[in-house]
Amino acid sequence: MVFVAKSGSGVDMISAKAKARQTAKRNELLLSLVIFLALMLAWESAGRMGYVNTFFFSWPSAIGAQCWKLLVSGALWSNLLVTAYAYCIGVFVAVIAGSILGLAMGWWKTFGSIVDPYVVFFSAMPRIALYPLLLMIFGINDLSRIVIVIIGVIFPVIFNAYMGAKQTPRLLIDAANVFGYSSNQLFLHVIFPASLPYLIAGVRTGVTLGMIMVVVAEFFGGSSGLGQNIAQTAQLYKTAELYAWVLYTSLFALILVKGADMFERWAMRWT
Amino acid sequence: MMNTHSAARLQVKDLVKAFDTPDGSLPVLDHISFSLNAGEIVTIVGASGSGKTTLLRMIAGLDTPDSGQLLLNGHAITKPGPDRAMIFQQFGLMPWLNVRDNVNFGMHVLGLSDEERQARTADAIERVGLKGFETFLPKNLSGGMQQRVGIARALAVRPDVLLCDEPFAAVDAMTRQVMQTDLLNIVTAQGTTALLVTHDIEEALFLGDRVLVFSSRPARLIHEFQVPVPKPRQHEVRTTAQFQDLRGQVWSLLQNQARELI
Fold first, then answer.
1. Residue A240 CB contacts under 8 Å (≥ 6 apart), including other chains
2. How many domains does chain A have?
3. Is the pLDDT of residue A2 over 60?
């Protein structure tokens, strides 16, 4: 109280604190950058001086050069497009279908308890194990990759939507019922919004899982796509290019995860 | 019962309810009969777990009695409807809706025009003193303010009977007293018929035109008090000798019940 008695001093203190926090954050950022550069430099010099086997581990400048080459030649974009195509369609279908199915399971209890064991079984299963079967059925093409992405992503979405619908607070349902809500209105205005936090958590899991599915599926064959290029460069011992493809795949995944984070924060403003 | 039952807004006749438990049937309401006249505020006071909430839920249509009758304006209550509104102990606001949309929430099934709904929402928000907070989310409001939203939501549907389930049990003691005065004034101003259950004797006396004292498990109506204190009532009413005398009488009825529960 004594501090704020003098006019303006309280505000000054707050801004001074904020400034100190900003400076601390900038220093942290600077430190991590320095450490990163030091690590890269160590890797580079170890590679050049023969301390690490560059046949397996390459070195930063070579990887950087490959990254640049893939970027300017357009190879990155054409391959990214192939992967993104199967990925996006698969994730989209899985999220829509999984949400509907999961919410229906929570809403219609008999249906939920009948389907639940299947969902548990397929959730626990390493679903990529089904891919050889899909290759038998569909062949090496977009369709088989889309289907494996759907299979990979749909189960966490179903599971979470189901949990969300089941765990809608009784109080909120009562509050809607008191005012005479029909079951459709109850679903639209209470169950669905109350399930959203769970559903979005399921989508977040699905976003990363779908990426694993599509990349691994591409290992099996085809002529393009991020995963196929990783597999091909490994077979040809083009280590630097292999690293470049892995790096781009990771960046793609990172952007998706950050995008999902932003979507989650936006959709969950009320929590 | 001195009320003429034909004019009653709400009639509860010989109501019986038991819950099935693993240990057998647990009776919660034992032949309860009373009625509410239009514009009247009746409060029910009893120890916690005396079936008061169950009674409200049945009047709201959320639960069905084992036997007995519930009549609203002379018609049997079979399901929930916007002719009744409820104020919940834990508010029951939709956390994703702001104040305005939460107040709007109860009117979805009334089939009102948009203008009418907006007018009612604005009016109810004004009555509970939340003007300026329309766009706030529940998480950014205090418990007392959240319950004001709950009150506004219930008032906006202009119910024939307003049901209040321990509405201030979840807010702090000081806020509670302020909110009791405010609720009384708002409900009286709108001429709303209300039934409020509580375990707080002072609250029951302060708010009620009549106070029904319930025994605990199974609940029986053991006594009915008239509260001959004119309205509007201000906080100071609580300190009068008349009020304190009534309080002593209710307490002497309830303390034996409370002892049994401990």
1. A58, A59, A62, A63, A65, A66
2. 2
3. no
In the block, tokens 């030649």 appear at A73
The CA distance from B185 to B165, in Å, is: 18
A182 touches chain B (CB under 8 A): yes
E strands within chain B? 8-21, 24-37, 41-45, 67-72, 75-76, 84-87, 161-165, 194-198, 210-214, 221-226
With 0-12 / 13-18 / 19 or more C-beta atoms within 10 angstroms meaning exposed / middle / buried, residue A38 is: exposed
> Among partner residues B90, B109, B157, which is closest to A181 by beta-carbon distance?
B109
Q: Parallel, antiparallel, or unpaired for β B221-226 and B24-37? A: unpaired
Residue boundaries of the structural domains of chain B: 5-83+160-261, 93-158
Q: Are B1 and B33 in contact (CB under 8 A)?
A: yes
Closest chain A CA to residue B97: A270
CATH of B5-83+160-261, one of 3.40.50.12780, 3.40.50.300, 3.20.20.140, 3.60.10.10: 3.40.50.300
Please give, rounded to a whole number of angstroms, the shortest distance from the CA of A178 to a CA of chain B.
5
A196 interfacial to chain B (CB closer than 8 Å): yes
Give yes or no for a cis peptide into B218 (omega within 30° of 0). yes
Q: CB of B94 within 8 Å of any CB in chain A?
A: yes
Hey, are the CB atoms on A189 and B105 less than 8 Å from each other?
yes
CA–CA dist A194, B84 (Å, integer): 24
3 state SS of B2? coil
Q: What is the pLDDT of residues B100-129, one digit of tens each?
A: 999 999 998 888 899 999 999 999 999 899
B92–A189 CB contact, under 8 Å: no
Residue type, B78: T
Determine, for residues B94 and A172 on separate chains, whether the beta-carbon distance falls below 8 Å.
Answer: yes
Residue A4 pLDDT > 50, yes or no?
A: no
Between A171, A182, A193, which is nearest B88 by CB? A171
Q: Tell which wins on pLDDT, A270 or B45.
A: B45
Residue A38 and residue A154 in one domain: no
pTM for the model: 0.82
